Amino acid sequence: MATYRINKSGSKAPPFTRILNDSLQDERLSFKARGLLAYMLTKPDHFRFYLDELMRHTTEKKDSIRTGMKELEQLGYVHRYPVKNERGKIISWELDLYESPSLRPESGFPVVENPTVVTNDKILTNDKRLNKYINFTNSEESYVKTYLKYFSQKKNKQHMRVTVEQYQAIHEQIEQLKKYGVTHEEWEAEVKDHFEHLPKSNNGNIIAFLHAAPRRFDVG
Fold it and tell me: What is the pLDDT of residues 123-174, one digit of tens each?
């Protein structure tokens, strides 16, 4: 048996997506769930997924997609949660996608009944236990300082405050990127690109940037 692949190098290379093999070889997932995950990972980091939209791109029925999505939720590849207004009424549902369950906030953040939820655009929390914020701009970490510099240039204001737990997790994730060999020059180039293409509706929180960092820097 031979495998024939598309040439993915050179200036004429077609669009392609690099995906962590571990996720697609996760034997706990059905092939349906793996295919769904692979399709979703071809979309931009801030893409919003809806069940009806997914159905337009497959022969699968709605119940089948729901089953695949449930598998991904149970194993930590997907986090689906409600967005509420100030009166506590659900106004929409959001979905966060993780190429690896290790990227979930729970892997570095405290798990609570109503945790802080990092969406594509903003941070939402209804849990007063997590409202112990600190001034993030006091960090002496050079990678953080670089991010804050471009944040200030783009948003013309200081970065929003973060909780103590988030502050610690941010620095731990940056240290992990350094261990993978991500240099300060590479970090700055990606941060600059991030803010050059940042939608106006996105508040630019560094936590969301770090969630996408493994793909940005092509690290495990």
Answer: 334 444 444 567 777 788 899 999 999 999 998 888 888 877 788 888 888 9
Rounded CA separation 140/220 (Å): 26
| Cα–Cα nearest to 109, from 178, 170, 46 | 170
Length, in residues, of the chain: 220
Whole-prediction pTM value? 0.47
The answer to whether residues 108 and 173 touch, using CB atoms and an 8 Å cutoff, is yes
DSSP 91: E
What pLDDT was estimated at residue 20?
Answer: 83
Place of tokens 């791109």: 57
Query: How many Å apart are CA 185 and CA 50, to the nearest integer?
Result: 37
Kind and range of the H or E run holding 101:
none
Count of helix runs (H) and strand runs (E) in the chain: 8, 6
Q: How many CB atoms lie within 10 A of CB 14?
A: 7
Domains and CATH numbers, the chain: 18-103 (1.10.10.10), 112-220 (no CATH)
- E strand segments, the chain: 78-84, 90-97, 117-118, 123-124, 133-134, 162-163
CA angle 24, 13, 32 (to 5 degrees): 20
Q: Cα–chain-centroid distance for residue 16? A: 19
Q: Are 96 and 78 in contact (CB under 8 A)?
A: yes
Beta pairing partners, 123: 118
The sign of the CA dihedral 31, 41, 168, 172 is positive
